[in-house]
Design a protein that fits this description.
binds magnesium ion; single chain; seven-stranded antiparallel beta sheet; binds ligand C2E; alpha/beta
Length: 839
């Protein structure tokens, strides 16, 4: 450009001026090296010609004479400028018309020259500099326009501030980010846009960067005037001291999208972490062991329980083949068990372990486990590994074994119990049946065991049973079963015998073995036993019958003097044997003095005080404990034993009254029950008077209870016996009144003092009108006949209330007291009846 020619169009109709200008520009080489260019001048005389020319050619400069003949002064400038927008327009005027020239400049001309000064020295220079300046200005404008276009196209916001920090320029992107118009940004301070919450942080970073003259960049929020937020990243280049006066440029990047992605990512990471943490805590706090593998079957995870159970820490186990960490075998076969995780992966389904699986810990310790394995799927639903869940079932398995053992064994001796015996006996019968063989059942009962138990206590009794159990077990073969049936009864099953004699020899062996003294708790105990034997198939075709018959035979052995064994025989009727057994036992009991009396108070209903007592017999059998009269009185009557038994009861009752009287206790009359056999016995009356005499008690303390039916059996003789008794001064009572069929005529003749209303009427007295009527009638009758009426079996306050309103004389029953042993009864005698039952 420096050497290019300057094309000049001269619009001048004055030929002289035109010549002068042409001369001044022609061939001119300026002195300055900078102005080393020449002018190419064309000249037109009219504005219209000039415009034409400008349409076809380019000119760097136009010299326009304001005083053209066809022109209208400065208006020409306005016409010319559009035709040559890029050219330098300089107007020429006369010295007298400078004002017009200045006006032309105001209208758009670039400068003016005064004619007359246009010499060859000055004009080229002046024109040259003008062109030069215009070229520079045009370049600047272009550059500025380019910069503006660039900055407007930039997605980065640009904020330019002056030395005072006030905005002098912002681009479109900045305006968009800040939500401010160009005008609004101008003069503003950049920090105004910062979100108040970020301002402190950003400004201190900014001041630090300014101080250190380092690059500033920060991420923060813009708060727009409409309240919306834009995340930005702002950069400002290092600010050298030299730059300081010129202000600064900041670029602003809208990073909202990235930030929100970051937030989403961060939230997802947080959620993932929380999820992982939750899973971790859950897995470590559940009681089950959890282990996972990848699809190759290598361990990828163990929870704490799994670590403890396998003996492998997670770090050590990770990546190892599952078989190494989780070693399992089948408990019974002791062979490696199938790996459930592999199966779960292969079959893509949940699988369980075999039932008796054992886990072998790293140190060789074995634990019974139960588990299941399930496949783990990846996002595509494909199997990616397996999860194994297992837990120690040693305890529960042991417990189950124990439970099933307990269910079939006796807790004291650990021998099979009745359940297991029946099971084994049924099996043995099945086998014997198939092979045409025989088997034997021995029913063994210890003699006098109850006695030992009662006198030495249950602990000794239990130990004795254990000693017996172990001796019995030693006497039989492993294939035989010794079972404890309950109490002191044992049953021995000889599963296979060639002949019954074999059972007999086992029984003998047992008798001998048991008879050897037992050392128990420092005591030397001697026991004998009675054994009954029954044989399958001769004595029964099923388990129950065979056992039952052995039991019957055992009773027979007891009856036959104990300490022996007996084979069952068809003629041994169970109840007959039982009866025989009881008879036998009664005889023993008589000899050993096993009978005793309990006393039950009779209460005077008006006063609530005890008015009498009934003596009720009890049998304390060394084997069976307390036995009640219902179970033996009838048998005793049948075999005549009731005579001595009844007499001893009568004597004991009288002696007891004598002792109370002697002890100064407020003794009450005692009623003794007399059975038919006794009553009819020829020695009865003599016996009563003998006892009265012997004990020395006043006869009024003795009351005899006879049932209606006894009296009515032979009413005539009853009248005479009763009269004789009456004459002795004893009291007479009719027991269980209302249950027999008394003839009123006789009733009147019997010298009876007391009527005891049977408990069957008393029971429903408050609810059954018939019973109420009967009780009423008996009370009424008693009053008429001047007999005291005692209600038996009073159990409830309702019954008592009824009896009291009917003015029944006395009551006896559980409501007041059960029959009591002597000592307990004496306390009632001394202290009186408890208040609660006294009314
Ligand atoms: P019993 O003479 O009618 O005796 C009353 C029975 O009723 C007694 O039964 C007594 O324990 C029971 N008892 C008392 N209060 C209540 C009650 O509130 N509710 C119920 N449900 N029962 C009650 P135990 O002692 O079993 O005597 C039964 C029977 O045996 C007596 O009936 C009597 O007939 C007879 N007996 C008792 N001791 C002897 C005796 O030394 N010699 C004779 N030959 N027979 C006797
Ligand atoms: Mg009675
Ligand atoms: Mg009775």
């Amino acid at each position: 450009m420096a050497n290019a020619q300057i094309r000049v169009l001269l619009i001048e109709d004055d030929a002289v001026d035109a010549g002068l200008i042409a001369q001044a520009l022609a061939g001119t080489e300026t002195a300055s090296s900078k102005v080393a260019r020449s002018f190419l001048l064309e000249c037109v005389t009219k504005l219209s010609l000039a415009c034409e020319k400008l349409g076809s050619a380019h000119f760097d400069a136009i010299l326009l004479d304001l005083a053209l003949a066809d022109g209208q002064g400065i208006d020409m400038v306005s016409q010319l400028l559009p035709a040559a927008p890029d050219a330098l327009v300089v107007v020429l005027s006369s010295a007298s018309d400078v004002a017009a020239a200045r006006l032309a400049v105001q209208r758009g001309a670039h400068d003016y020259f005064i004619k007359g000064h246009l010499d060859a020295h000055w004009l080229p220079r002046a024109l040259h500099y003008l062109v030069e300046r215009k070229t520079a200005q045009d370049a600047l404008l272009i550059s500025e326009a380019r910069f503006r276009a660039m900055s407007d196209a930039s997605p980065l916001g640009i904020f330019v501030s002056d030395a005072q920090g006030n905005c002098i320029y912002t681009n479109g992107a900045y305006q968009q980010i800040s939500g401010l118009s160009f005008a609004e940004t101008l003069g503003s301070d950049w920090s105004q846009a910062i979100h108040p919450e970020d301002r402190q942080r950003v400004l201190s970073a900014w001041h630090a960067a300014v101080k250190d003259a380092t690059t500033f960049h920060a991420e923060f929020r813009f708060l727009r005037s409409d309240g919306s937020i834009v995340w930005t990243r702002v950069n400002s280049n290092a600010m050298g001291a030299a730059m300081e006066p010129h202000g600064r440029v900041k670029t602003v990047e809208d990073i909202t999208a990235r930030k929100s992605e970051e937030f989403v990512l961060h939230a997802a990471e947080e959620a993932l972490f929380a999820e992982k943490e939750r899973a971790q805590v859950t897995l470590n706090s559940i009681g089950d062991a959890v282990l996972t593998t990848d699809i190759m079957g290598n361990v990828t995870y163990l929870n704490l329980v799994a670590e403890a159970m396998t003996g492998w820490s997670r770090q050590e186990a990770l990546g190892r083949p599952l078989e190494e960490v989780f070693r399992i075998i089948e408990g019974s076969a002791r062979q490696a068990a199938l790996n459930p995780a592999k199966r779960a992966i292969a079959e893509d389904m949940t699988v369980g372990l075999s039932a008796d699986c054992l886990l072998i810990r790293r140190d060789g310790f074995e634990a019974a486990i139960e588990d299941s394995a399930a496949p783990i799927h990846n996002r595509d639903g494909r199997v990616a590994g397996a999860v194994l869940v297992f837990h120690d079932v040693s305890k529960s398995r042991a417990m189950a074994l124990k439970m099933s053992h307990l269910a079939k064994h006796d807790f004291l001796t650990d021998l099979p119990n009745r359940v297991l015996l029946t099971e084994r006996l049924s099996q043995a019968i099945g086998l014997a049946h198939r092979h045409g063989k025989q088997l034997a059942v021995l029913f063994l009962d210890l003699d006098d065991f109850k006695h030992i138990n009662d006198s030495l206590g249950h602990t000794i009794g239990d130990q004795l049973l254990q000693s017996v159990a172990s001796r019995l077990s030693l006497c039989v073969r492993a294939t035989d079963t010794v079972c404890r049936q309950g109490g002191d009864e044992f049953v021995i099953l000889l599963a296979e015998i060639d002949q019954p004699q074999h059972a007999a020899s086992v029984a003998e062996k047992l008798l001998v073995a048991l008879a050897v003294q037992h050392l128990v708790g420092g005591h030397e105990l001697h026991v004998t036993s009675s054994i009954g034997i029954s044989i399958y198939p001769d004595d029964g075709s099923n388990a129950d019958t065979v056992i039952q018959n052995a039991d019957t035979a055992m009773y027979y052995a007891k009856t036959s003097g104990r300490n022996n064994y007996q084979f069952f025989k068809a003629e041994m009727n169970a109840s007959a044997v039982q009866r025989l057994f009881i008879e036998n036992s009664l005889r023993h009991a008589m000899k050993r003095g096993e009978f005793l009396l309990h006393y039950q108070p009779q209460i005077d209903l008006a006063s609530g005080a005890m008015s009498g007592a009934e003596a009720l017999i009890r049998w304390r059998d060394p084997d069976r404990g307390i036995i009640y009269p219902e179970q033996f009185v009838a048998i005793a009557e049948d075999c005549g034993l009731i005579i001595p038994i009844g007499k001893s009861a009568l004597r004991e009752a009288c002696m007891q009254v004598a002792r109370w009287l002697k002890a100064g206790l407020p003794a009450v009359p005692v009623a003794v029950n007399i059975s038919a056999v006794e009553f009819r016995h020829k020695d009865f009356l003599a016996g009563v008077s003998e006892i009265l005499e012997e004990t020395g008690i006043e006869p009024r303390y003795l009351e005899l209870e006879l049932t209606e039916s006894v009296l009515m059996q032979d009413a005539e003789s009853s009248v005479s016996i009763l009269s004789a008794l009456k004459a002795m001064g004893v009291q007479l009572a009719i027991d269980d009144f209302g249950t027999g069929y008394s003839s009123l005529a006789y009733l009147k003749r019997f010298p009876i003092d007391i009527l005891k209303i049977d408990q069957s009427f008393v029971r429903d007295v408050a609810t059954d009108s018939n019973d109420a009527a009967i009780v009423n009638a008996v009370i009424g009758m008693g009053k008429n006949l001047r007999q005291r009426v005692i209600a038996e079996g009073v159990e409830t306050p309702g019954q008592l209330a009824f009896l009291k309103t009917r003015e029944c004389d006395a009551g006896q029953g559980y409501l007041f007291s059960r029959p009591l042993p002597t000592e307990a009864f004496e306390k009632l005698l001394v202290n009186g009846m408890p208040a609660a039952t006294a009314h």
